[in-house]
Design goal:
- The protein is of the alpha+beta class.
- It has 2 domains: 3-82, Orthogonal Bundle (Arc Repressor Mutant, subunit A); 90-216, 2-Layer Sandwich (Muramoyl-pentapeptide Carboxypeptidase, domain 2).
- The chain is built from 10 helices and 8 strands.
- The chain has helices at residues 3-8, 16-27, 32-39, 43-55, 79-82, 90-104, 106-127, 134-147, 172-177, 180-193; strands at 10-11, 14-15, 59-64, 72-77, 152-156, 162-166, 195-201, 210-216.
- Strands 5-6-8-7 form a 4-stranded antiparallel beta sheet, covered by helices on one side. Strands 1-2 form a two-stranded antiparallel sheet. Strands 3-4 form a two-stranded antiparallel sheet.
- It is globular, with a radius of gyration of 20 Å.
- The N and C termini lie far apart (59 Å).
- This is Transcriptional regulator.
Length: 219
């Protein structure tokens, strides 16, 4: 399959360019050979498509040394590539935050964030009804956050710790302007799960995703 064939094909309703962006978004940097395998095509076809996407500023290649031998070329999603994923009403959101702060002050902004937190807590608490353990609660949280556009998933480590990941932030523009949104979300997770929740990766700190380690609270 040629690069042109790749570009013109669709996979699950997406162009291959969109599919490659989704792979980088959800799995991090990839070699073209690995991306090709995941798409069911050749590494060379994937590489050619990445080159086209790089010209559009959606991805970039970086060399990484892995032990003995030549460095490998890894493809990374760029900020422009991240922007292809929905950031809910980004322009309207940023304008409203700026207007609220300039016209009503920081206290008004805090009230809005607090009201949003209370509404979210009520909705999440209702979704947790009947959950019998921490793992089930996290599974329900994953479902909620996926519906809200966070591309969430979780995994359980051998020691019983639960890792919770969000590959996308649909309110990233608002969070950049006011990190109170992120602070209240962390608080919300702790209250809803009734567990220890530690943020280990943070999009606003330059990581590609937000990640959390969840452990049962000690009585």
């Amino acid at each position: 399959m040629s690069s042109d064939d790749l570009e013109n094909s669709t996979i699950v309703g997406q162009t291959v360019s969109e599919k490659l962006l989704m792979l980088l978004k959800t799995q991090g940097a990839l070699q073209a050979s690995d991306a090709g395998k995941l798409l069911g095509t050749t590494g060379e076809a994937a590489r050619q498509q990445f080159v086209k996407m790089a010209k559009e500023g959606l991805v970039e290649a970086k060399s990484e040394t892995r032990g003995v031998g030549r460095p490998v070329q890894l493809w990374h999603i760029t900020e422009k590539g991240h922007a292809k994923f929905p950031d809910t009403h980004v322009e309207l959101t940023t304008q409203l935050i700026s207007i609220i702060r300039s016209q009503l002050g920081e206290d008004a902004m805090d009230l809005i964030i607090s009201a949003r937190e209370k509404e979210a807590f009520s909705n999440y608490k209702k979704a947790m009804e009947g959950a019998t353990g921490l793992q089930e609660k996290v599974e329900r949280l994953v479902s909620i956050r996926c519906r809200e556009g966070y591309m969430a998933y979780s995994s359980v480590e051998e020691n019983g710790d639960i890792l919770f990941f969000e590959n996308h932030c649909p309110i990233c523009a608002a969070a950049k302007l006011c990190q109170g949104f992120c602070r209240t979300e962390l608080k919300l997770f702790r209250e809803i799960l009734q567990a220890n929740v530690e943020r280990t990766e943070y999009i606003l700190s330059g990581h590609r995703r937000c990640a959390y380690r969840i452990t049962a609270s000690r009585s």
